[in-house]
């Protein structure tokens, strides 16, 4: 079509119509870009502290947030939320992990133990009792993660799993302070109770030997 076919359809009118159409298309696209992209909920079944549980969770929910916000097990602490401090350490099928770095949906069917599942105020886990006896804490914020990690460390040594401090990777790891310090290096205590933590772990390891 040209201006001779439709004299009333001028170049100016064409530009105005094009601009209007572009704006009409851009508006819903802009709204879609600004709207939060919600992830569909997913069913997750796992065992927490001996109890079978089933949750409907956003697939982006970390295991840490599932424990704290959905199950109200607030013993597990959110420290750095980047896997650097170890305050969120829990046991999954007997092995320690940083729960802030793991999605809850990854643990369908797993067995999860938090500090609440290790012992009770009336019947403490030996590691909990040793931390109290040796003053292995001050402010206490890192303590749940420290205790869960300490329990796992002794299991690792008993299973013969070497660490960077092990002189011979083919030999059974020694229960030394250097070995314990290396294995606990992922759990930060800002109060500096490290010597007392090692003393607590050494006592529990000696009692279990």
UniProtKB/TrEMBL annotation:
Gene3D superfamilies: 3.10.20.30, [2Fe-2S]-binding domain (1.10.150.120). GO terms for molecular function: 2 iron, 2 sulfur cluster binding; metal ion binding; oxidoreductase activity, acting on the aldehyde or oxo group of donors. It comes from the Bacteria. Keywords: 2Fe-2S, Iron, Iron-sulfur, Metal-binding, Oxidoreductase, Signal. Residues 42-118 form the 2Fe-2S ferredoxin-type domain. Pfam families: Fer2, Fer2_2. Residues 1-26 form the signal peptide. One of its GO terms (cellular component) is periplasmic space. NCBIfam families: PRK11433.1. This is 2Fe-2S ferredoxin-type domain-containing protein. It comes from Massilia timonae CCUG 45783.
């Amino acid at each position: 079509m040209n201006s001779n076919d439709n004299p009333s359809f001028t170049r100016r009118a064409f530009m105005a119509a094009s601009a209007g159409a572009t704006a009409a298309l851009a508006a819903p696209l802009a709204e879609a870009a600004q709207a939060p992209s919600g992830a569909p909920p997913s069913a997750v079944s796992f065992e927490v502290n001996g109890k079978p549980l089933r949750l409907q969770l956003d697939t982006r929910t970390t295991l840490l947030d599932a424990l704290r916000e959905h199950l109200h097990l607030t013993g597990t602490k959110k420290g750095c939320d980047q896997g650097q401090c170890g305050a969120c350490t829990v046991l999954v099928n007997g092995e320690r992990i940083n729960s802030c770095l793991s999605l809850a949906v990854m643990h369908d069917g797993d067995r999860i133990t938090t500090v609440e599942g290790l012992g009770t105020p009336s019947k403490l886990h030996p590691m909990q009792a040793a931390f109290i006896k040796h003053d292995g804490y001050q402010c206490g914020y890192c303590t749940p993660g420290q205790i869960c990690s300490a329990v796992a460390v002794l299991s690792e040594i008993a299973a013969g799993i070497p660490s960077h401090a092990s002189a011979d990777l083919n030999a059974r790891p020694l229960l030394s302070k250097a070995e314990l310090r290396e294995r606990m290096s992922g759990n930060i205590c800002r109060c500096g109770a490290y010597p007392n933590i090692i003393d607590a772990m050494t006592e529990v390891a000696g009692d279990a030997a």
